[in-house]
Amino acid sequence: MTARFGYLLPTRERVMEGRPAAAPLLDLAVRAEAIGFDSVWIGDSLIDRPRHEPLTMLAAAAARTRRVTLGTAVLLPMLRNPVLLAHQAATVDQISGGRLVLGIGISNDTPGIRAEFEAAGVPFEKRVGRVIEGMALCKALWTGNKVDWNGRWRLEGATIGPVPHRAGGPPIWMGGSSPGSVQRAGKYYDGWFPISTPPAKFGEMWAEVMTVARAAGREPGAIVGAIYLTICIDEDRARAEERIGAFLESYYPGRGALMKRLQAWYAGPKAGAIAWLSAYVAAGVGHFILRFPGDHERHMDAIAEIRTAVTG
After folding, report:
1. What is the pLDDT of residues 184-219, one digit of tens each?
2. 208-213 long-range CB contacts below 8 Å, 24 or more apart?
3. Which of 48, 184, 200, 201 is the most exposed place for a label (fewest CB within 10 A)?
4. Share of the chain above pLDDT 70, in %
């Protein structure tokens, strides 16, 4: 299998560092495209882990790039009105010429996430139903046909314009590694997109996604298996692992040690990175989204050097 490689823009990190200027971030997106990355991604958060609003930044990245896929890793659609989200996503897809992918998530139950829901005026409970219905409404609006809807949202003969550049709208990848996420990915969406799941576990759950898709009468080969991973390449393994720990603590204040235990990550030389990433390809990963703990240009160059050895 030939895997594709994506790069996560450090929007969260730059805000934490007090360096939120957009231009340097967009320069990183341009650089990623120039050295051969297949995609560029941006995370999402309102007040829990503040960062640039992803669809707005992706619109700017779309204007600065020509080839790379542009995606959200991951968007929390239940925090947004789906009619507005459908309109925003359609516009970004038009700007990019059909390069948008919506990675979406349900979110974990943490105090910070609950605060985001409260701030957005959205009930935390029944969020799964809001996501499923909201994305179904987006897809209906993306057809360009008049939409009548009588659910959480009510529409009569509604249309949006423009519709997305890509027929049917942007692909939707379901984030998360819970059994429910696996079910939703197999039944409804165009990809499955967990974060930091070990290769063997990914393989087991990916097989379940395929089983669910077949049972739903879908073509499993049309679904993308993706994964979001943190990687630090350094010939000094101890230094690399120390950097991973410091990065996770800064990214998840007070929970860094826990995240280090729960998330799959790699810290060490290039040879080990090749073996680690190759294990994911063997398990079914078709698209990597990589998060780097600093030194972004150096890490991009390192991945560009080793990707052929991973993809074959």
Report:
1. 999 999 999 999 999 999 999 999 999 999 999 999
2. 208/182, 209/182, 209/185, 210/186, 211/186, 212/182, 212/183, 212/185, 212/186, 212/187, 213/186, 213/187
3. 200
4. 99
Nearest to 105 by CA among 169, 7, 178: 178
State which H helix or E strand residue 290 sits in: strand 287-291
| CA distance linking residue 132 with residue 112, whole number of Å | 23
User: Which residue(s) pair with 71 in the sheet?
Assistant: 41, 101
- Rounded to an integer, the average pLDDT of 103-112 is 94
Q: What does the alpha-carbon distance between residue 306 and residue 101 come to, in Å, rounded to a whole number?
A: 25
Strand partners, 265: 230
CB contact at 8 A, 68 and 122: no
Q: In the structure encoding, which two tokens stand for residue 133, read together?
A: 């219905």
> What is the set of domains in the chain, with CATH numbers?
4-311 (3.20.20.30)
CB 75 within 8 A of CB 105: yes
Sequence-distant (≥ 6) Cβ neighbours of residue 30 within 8 angstroms = 64, 65
Among candidates 225, 227, 128, which has minimal Cα distance to 184? 128
- Cβ atoms 146, 158 nearer than 8 A: yes
Contact assessment for residue 62 and residue 40, using Cβ atoms and an 8 Å cutoff:
no
Q: In this structure, is the dihedral angle defined by the CA atoms of residues 184, 189, 193 and 199, taken in order, positive or negative?
A: positive
pLDDT of residue 312: 60
Give the pLDDT confidence of 273-304 residue by residue, as tens digits: 999 999 999 999 999 999 999 999 999 999 99
